Amino acid sequence: MKTLLLVVACALVDVDNRVLISQRPEGKALAGLWEFPGGKVDPGESPEDALVRELAEELGITVEKPCLAPLTFASFDYETFHLLMPLYVCRRWQGFVSGREGQAVKWVKARDLRSYPMPPADEPLIPHLVDLL
Ligand SMILES: Nc1nc2c([nH]c(=O)n2[C@@H]2O[C@H](COP(=O)(O)OP(=O)(O)OP(=O)(O)O)[C@@H](O)[C@H]2O)c(=O)[nH]1
């Protein structure tokens, strides 16, 4: 039985209904692919606390937990672990988004997400965003 890895991710949505994607930096697994900001839930941490922390670390923004709305989740069998990844939607935050870890970020229309190579776990999430936005 593979380890079940809990990763939280967020679709930040701006006033023009575009979604933020972030490019995984060189040196990390799946480098160069575009993904939703987020990361692993630490032991003892709630999913929402983990997402608030990751959004601050990666993008330099402050998000209040009630502004995180669950949308759907990804469940994907990677070679070495099984990924379970809740996807939240957030339209309200404080501060300006910038790639704090040197990563490129991009605002894209949901229907254009398919033009950006994403991890295989993310592909089934795209139609949910297209429907919502
Ligand atoms: N953040 C994020 N991770 C994703 C997405 N899709 C996906 O398969 N993953 C996978 O989920 C895992 C998240 O790990 P991460 O490396 O971003 O998390 P982290 O920043 O907490 O880890 P680290 O500090 O060890 O690098 C990776 O294996 C990554 O490939 C996504 O859309 N967003």
From TrEMBL:
Residue numbers binding 8-oxo-dGTP: 24, 35-38
Binding positions (Mg(2+)): 38, 58
Keyword flag Nucleotidyltransferase: no
PROSITE patterns found in the cross-reference section: NUDIX, NUDIX_BOX
DNA damage recorded as keyword: yes
One Gene Ontology biological process: DNA repair
InterPro entries assigned: Mutator_MutT, MutT-like, MutY_C, Nudix_hydrolase, NUDIX_hydrolase-like_dom_sf, NUDIX_hydrolase_CS, NUDIX_hydrolase_dom
Residues forming coiled coils: none
This enzyme's EC code(s): 3.6.1.55
Top-tier EC class: hydrolase
Keywords: DNA damage, DNA repair, DNA replication, Hydrolase, Magnesium, Metal-binding, Mutator protein
Domain Nudix hydrolase: start-end pairs: 3-131
Single annotated GO MF: 8-oxo-7,8-dihydroguanosine triphosphate pyrophosphatase activity
Source superkingdom: Bacteria
Cofactor(s) annotated in UniProt: Mg(2+)
Reaction it catalyzes: 8-oxo-dGTP + H2O = 8-oxo-dGMP + diphosphate + H(+); 8-oxo-GTP + H2O = 8-oxo-GMP + diphosphate + H(+)
CDD domains: NUDIX_MutT_NudA_like (cd03425)
UniProt family annotation: Belongs to the Nudix hydrolase family.
Protein name in the entry: 8-oxo-dGTP diphosphatase
Organism: Methylobrevis pamukkalensis
